[in-house]
Amino acid sequence: MKKGVLETIKNRHSYRGEYRSDKISREDLTAIMEAGLAAPSGCNKQTTSLICVDDPDILKQIHSVINPPVATTAPALICVLTQRINAYRDKCFAVQDYSAAIENMLLAIVDLGYQSCWYEGHITDDDRICDKIADILNVPEEYGLVCILPVGMAKEEPVSPKKKEFAERAWFNSYKGEK
């Protein structure tokens, strides 16, 4: 990996603050989604699809169903869809597929100077906000909407969370942590 990629990885973190109103170019949004679709997928089943919303009226509709509200000031939102398709030995790798796609997009977002946050549990919980968003976007039933990624310029200076030391979580040749 190039040093630039490593820096982007180290600088990426969840941003839950306010976003500036600056519109994001379709070129940047396309590049972000292309990064997501370039992620590996189990047996190349390519179970992940994406919908980018940058229309203010549609964003307003989506935000009206998200309770408690999140990322209401982001000028764009990438919705991550998945299909449960069996691959090797009747195993489905949809979760791994969309997770890899999301991480690629989060890295591309930071690399392009924007911020984001992986909202999955908040929308897939028992109240099924994801289904309400899927209805707004006319998503067919064979797809599940599993995540939303707001995209925008941070209004406030992003603050990285404290990470545990390397030696607390990574070792060579055998486990060396607390037992």
Could you characterize the architecture of this molecule?
This protein is of the alpha+beta class and 179 residues long. It has one domain: NADH Oxidase (3-Layer(aba) Sandwich), CATH 3.40.109. The protein is 36% helix and 12% strand. The protein contains seven helices and three strands; from the N terminus they run ααβαβαααβα. A three-stranded antiparallel beta sheet has the order 1-2-3, with helices on both faces.
Largest sheet: 3 strands, antiparallel
The CATH superfamily label reads NADH Oxidase
Number of strands: 3
Which CATH class?
Answer: Alpha Beta
C-alpha end-to-end distance: 33 Å
* Radius of gyration, CA atoms, in whole angstroms: 17 Å
**Overall 3D geometry?**
globular
Unreliably modeled segments: none
What's the CATH topology name? NADH Oxidase
Order of helices and strands: HHEHEHHHEH
Please indicate the percent range of residues in DSSP E strands (runs of 2 or more).
Answer: 5-15%
Structural class: alpha+beta
> Number of DSSP helices?
7
CATH architecture: 3-Layer(aba) Sandwich
Strand order of the largest sheet: 1-2-3
Helix content: 25-40%
Mean pLDDT: 94
Quickly count the domains. Answer: 1
Features:
single chain, 179 residues, alpha+beta, NADH Oxidase, three-stranded antiparallel beta sheet, globular
